[in-house]
Specification:
With about 325 residues, the protein is an alpha/beta fold. It contains twelve helices and 13 strands. The strands form two sheets. The protein has a seven-stranded mixed beta sheet with strand order 12-11-7-10-9-8-13. Strands 3-2-1-4-5-6 form a six-stranded parallel beta sheet, with helices on both faces. β5 (about 85-90), α5 and β6 (about 115) form a beta-alpha-beta unit. α4 (about 70-80) packs parallel to α5, α5 (about 95-105) runs antiparallel to α11 (about 300-320) and α6 (about 125-135) crosses α7 (about 165-180). Keywords: Oxidoreductase.
Length: about 325
């Protein structure tokens, strides 16, 4: 099959390396808003470059992978679906809630599969945690704890357009909580703080956040995030039940040290998301290629992305207004 790749930045280049090695992929065609960057990436990897997005869509694609900047996602997804081309898109589907709903309305009923890039659904630890919940061996689940701790903050220029900590960062945790537990979130209570760069406060954002989610069966999920965790990139998810507990992401790269005695991770600490989730990124693209080849259902359709975004929106309202917010309130 011939797969188009829109976006030749850091994650786009990583996806290109994965795509070119997948069985059944005969050609990868790369395009970018900067044609020179597309040509350079294609040249390094032995791929074909397209001059622009129009040329990319004219290349006879069997599928499209979208790794372009966020504000281009919605238009590319809709264009692909209208062309009958299955599409994989990095989160978010669109920069905001109304835009996401518009894309879903365009996609709904088209019969063209769309897969959203929530890579934690393909991380072995998260999959094993989900299996443990489903098997019943943990008993009834009472608490889930999930964290995303970045080692360094993004550039100041990125912050105003990021959507905020809950939409940009914790949305992965929100999706992971739903994926692992198989439950929906009914309400949230969230807060945030700023002790780092003034750019976060100036943009109306926070550099550290925490949220308590109430799930529809009464389970409580605790989600925390920060832009300042110099020890390393730390993503973990714990599931605690009446009969036992499991943790995903506790390995030799976990940037934690025991306060007194105990076992230290062998290290080195995880440096970032591309390194921590390298296997998961490869697995989700392999699943996408299988979906395209076999005509199977999307393993992460855009409706799942919308549900995670509703949670993020509710957390942002809760943080700003200092109150508990129901998901139904945000839905309306």
């Amino acid at each position: 099959m011939r797969i188009g790749l829109a976006g030749a930045g850091r994650i786009g280049t990583a996806h290109a390396e994965t795509l070119r090695a997948l069985p059944g992929v005969a050609e990868v065609v790369v395009a970018d808003a900067d044609p020179r960057r597309a040509r350079e990436a294609a040249g390094r990897l032995g791929l074909r470059a397209a001059d622009d997005v129009g040329a990319l869509f004219a290349a006879g694609l069997d599928a499209l992978v979208v790794a372009a900047p966020t504000d281009a996602h919605a238009g590319l997804v809709v264009r692909a679906v209208e062309a009958g081309t299955p599409v994989f898109v990095e989160k978010p589907v669109a920069p905001d809630l109304p835009g996401t709903i518009e894309v879903l309305e365009a996609v709904r009923g088209a019969g063209v599969p769309v897969q959203v890039g929530f890579q934690r659904r393909f991380d072995p630890g998260h999959v094993a945690a989900r299996d443990a919940v489903r098997s019943g061996r943990l008993g009834w689940v009472h608490t889930v704890r999930s964290c995303t701790l970045d080692p360094v903050p993004p550039p100041d220029a990125y912050i105003p357009g990021s959507g905020g900590l809950f939409r940009d960062c914790s949305v992965h945790d929100f999706d992971a909580v739903r994926f692992v537990t198989g439950r929906d979130v009914t309400e949230v209570t969230a807060t945030g703080a700023n002790r780092g760069s003034a750019a976060f406060a100036e943009a109306g954002d926070v550099d550290t956040g925490a949220a308590t989610l109430t799930l529809d069966d009464g389970t409580l999920a605790l989600v925390s995030a920060t832009r300042y965790n110099a020890a390393g990139y730390d993503v973990r998810l714990e599931v605690l039940g009446s009969e036992g507990g499991v943790v995903a992401g506790l390995d030799d790269g976990t940037p934690l040290s025991p306060a007194a005695g105990g076992i230290r991770p062998a290290g080195p600490a995880h440096t970032g998301f591309l390194e921590r989730f390298a296997g998961a990124y490869a697995a989700e693209l392999a699943a996408f290629a299988d979906m395209v080849a076999g005509g199977t259902a999307s393993p992460c359709p855009p409706e799942e992305s919308l549900e995670a975004l509703y949670i993020a929106e509710a957390c942002e309202v809760s943080r700003r207004e200092r109150r508990t917010v129901t998901i139904e309130e945000v839905r309306r």
